[in-house]
Amino acid sequence: MSISRHTCSGRRCTKFDICRDTLLYVILLIFFLPSFWIFLTSIRPNAEINARPPVWIPQEITLDSYKILLGMPTPQGAFGMGTNIPFDAYARNSIVISLISTICALSLGTLAGYVFARFRFPYKNITFLGMMLLRAVPGIALSLPLFVLFARLGLSDTVTGMIIVYTALNIPFTAWLMDGFFRAIPKELEDAARIDGCSHWGAFLRVELPLALPGVAASAIFAFLTAWNEFALSSIITRTPASRTFPPGLFEFTGQFVSDWRGMCAMSVMMLIPAILFVALVQRQLMEGLIAGATKE
After folding, report:
1. What CATH number did the domain enclosing 282 receive?
2. What are the pLDDT digits (tens) for 55-95?
3. Do residues 178 and 112 make contact, with C-beta atoms less than 8 angstroms apart?
């Protein structure tokens, strides 16, 4: 009598494997449901949003909220607070600030991580610990001092000011993560490159940096998402569409007596698209980076 068994990656599945996979799918479903509900709210009529009991499946699908955000013509009678919201300016500011601050934080943080991992200098440990402690300060605690400083320097309510803020915010974490990656790379590889005639820069660019690219990808994901989703500093430093990003822009859908929940959800869905695309582009490098970054000598 033969008993057929399922295989899991070339081996027989056990009850533990089935329970683990089931639990994993349940957890993923729990995390996915809020995003799915936001999407459903963005395409359902206003009458169904505050209905009691809740309407789980939209009886009618409408894209009016997206058309209003994008400035497209809508059916007569369709109205939302999004008609007065400069969606294109918020999208442009978010993309420019997030990308440039991510590139700057990666460049400076990677170099800092390499220096901490490979060189000895006075007060090295104190300097590294000080960077980590500065990163632990909540953003809301930094908002008022930064607002006063930027107002005196003429950087308040500017894209340049937001790039500087997010670059400084992401450098400590990037340096800490890249320090772990460079420590995991054998120093003998650098010594061999130096014997072959490479300078410190040559060994760094040709040998060590390519091996640490998974860490660079992981750092890029965290830096980009931090700049893309940050609210506390952006809501204080920015005041006009000239530099305002998506997170504080969402609050323009709320008024004194009414809130445009459908428009807010539509903008939230539009915010998710660039973040998902960015993560998807470096997903493989991110997974390798998270595994390798967990090991330090």
Report:
1. 1.10.3720.10
2. 888 888 888 888 888 877 666 555 565 667 888 899 999 99
3. yes
